[in-house]
Amino acid sequence: MYLSRFYLPLMKETPADAQIISHQLMLRAGMIRQGAAGIYSWLPLGYRVLKKIEQIVREEQDRAGAVEMLMPTIQSAELWRESGRYEAYGKEMLRITDRHDREMLYGPTNEELVTEIFRAGTRSYKDLPKMLYHIQWKFRDEIRPRFGVMRGREFLMKDTYSFDLTEEAARKSYYKMFVAYLRTFNRLGLKSVPMKADTGPIGGDLSHEFIVLAETGESQVYCHRELIDMAVPGSDVDFDGDLEPFVRERTSLYAATDEMYDEKEFEKVPEDDRITARGIEVGHIFFFGTKYSAPMNCVVSGHDGRNVPVQMGSYGIGVSRLMGALIEAYHDEDGCRWPVPVAPFHVGLINLKPGDEESDRLCREFYAKLQGAGIEVLYDDTPARPGEKFARMDLIGLPYQMVVGPRGLATGHVEVKERHSGERIELTPDEALDHVTGKIISALVPA
RNA sequence: CGGGGCGUAGCGCAGCCUGGUAGCGCAUCUGUUUUGGGAACAGAGGGUCGCAAGUUCGAAUCUUGCCGCCCCGACCA
Predict the structure, then answer these.
(1) Tell me, in Å, how far CA of A142 is from C1' of B13?
(2) Which nucleotide is closest to the Cα of A317 by its C1'?
(3) Residue extent(s) of CATH 3.40.50.800 domains in chain A
(4) Which nucleotide is nearest to A37 (CA to C1')?
């Protein structure tokens, strides 16, 4: 992409409304624009990141055996009356009336709808287990939206629903999602810690929040130090095999958010290993048994021919919120520092002097070769001054910058800057190309 | 929903108390000089002062109502 064609409205000054770094940088780097409280447009740069996050989430869901579908944003109130949640949900649910005075709602979640879909198409235990998911916009009319996309009213969420015959089988589905989540956040470049969450009236041990540690997190969290750098299952993990060891490894050490915090239990952790921090909830997995299947009559014939309600669980990832979490985790005073897998472009190619024949020629050559290697390039071909170009590229935070200009070319060199470390090296054009290509390609292969 | 704050040019703000027909910095446009980490000079364009009503000869400024946004709290499968 040529910068001269791209739409990238940057701001030098920080808008007064934005309180936290991720919100400030998303506005300054031209990634989002607020439409109303907690509602944002995704501008081209931000949308590219959102799609990358979404795609990684999708790949890991598919790997775990979940099946993608798409349910609508608008739902009928009728279904929610079946489950009893239409009244229970309260004002957080945005209620809409259509021209025929039918009661509708903008979905805050999809348990009812997916249960209806599943009951309509499933008769026998032989059709189980199944996991269905979709990635769709949700709306929750939060009393007070804040922190930009971290706590918006409209947000993009991946939600998976599992259907099993027995609680024991449901546990296996739960473990699949547990492992998929570890892999997903790891691929995004985030260190996540699963923490015990409130299971509500169902009870049991099957609810976890996945927390990314960050100073600006909304929840106070407590955990054992070893959880933070624990290696995640590799891409060769067998989702049909026994996943319990992975789960046990992660859940045997203490980790809890504020609401589940137990001081006495935490004090059993050796003092040096106790970590008290702030965290951002990026995922939540939950087993809820027959909470919806029973009232909504989502049943299958069991081995004995009798109908039994299916055992269900739901598993959410806040896709749009993750973007905020990523910036909170990866930024410095100059701007964003995107990890390669989610970067809006991989390389920022800076032509310091458009119009200079040799600079133009080499930039065009770099651009073609990088694109040919499957690398996404944002080529700054604008006539702006060098200082502005550098500052701009630092702000939007592409992982690598290649700087081409007459001064370097006089000695046959170009500069390569790694945004994350800030390291700058002088290389010949061929070396620079190999260096950058190699780094990016290897960073794109999922572990 | 309770408490607080704010709404003046694309962004950041001053002016309001003490009414007199709108200003600063950045950004934008033109020209000249510059040119490797957010240039300098000269000039230019851009605002129904959130909306409505009221007071007044006259309202960005005073009064009332409404709308919107932000912060703290409560809330957050």
Answers:
(1) 31
(2) B77
(3) 345-444
(4) B69
Cα–Cα distance for residue pair A55/A64, rounded to 1 Å? 14
Nearest DNA or RNA nucleotide to A148 (CA to C1'): B70
A434 neighbors A370 (Cβ within 8 angstroms): no
Of A90-99, A158-167, A263-272, A430-439, the poorest mean pLDDT is in A90-99
- Judged on CB neighbours under 10 Å (0-12, 13-18, 19+), A351 is buried
As a whole number of angstroms, the distance between CA A116 and CA A101 comes to 23
Going A66 to A70 to A73 to A77, the CA torsion angle's sign is negative
What is the distance in angstroms measured between the alpha-carbon CA of A11 and the sugar C1' of B45?
21
Distance A406 CA to B40 C1' (A): 23
E strands within A77-206? Answer: 94-97, 103-106, 130-139, 154-164, 192-196
Find all residues with CB under 8 Å of A365, minimum gap 6, and list them. Answer: A429
**Top-tier CATH class for A21-332:** alpha beta
| Nucleotide B52 C1' to residue A137 CA (A) | 36
**For residues A243-253, average pLDDT:** 95
The 10s digit of each residue's pLDDT in A151-177 is 999 999 999 999 999 999 999 999 999
Q: CA of A424 vs C1' of B33, distance in Å?
A: 32
CATH number for the domain whose boundaries are A345-444: 3.40.50.800
User: Can you point out the beta strands (E) in A352-407?
Assistant: 377-380, 400-404
Q: Which residue has the higher pLDDT, A201 or A152?
A: A152
Length of chain A: 447
In this model, does residue A71 exceed pLDDT 70? yes
Region A39-60: mean pLDDT is 97
A215: tokens are: 């100073």
User: Which part of chain A is CATH 3.30.930.10?
Assistant: 21-332
For chain B, which bases have at least one atom within 7 A of a protein Cβ? Answer: 1-2, 11-13, 25-27, 34-39, 68-77
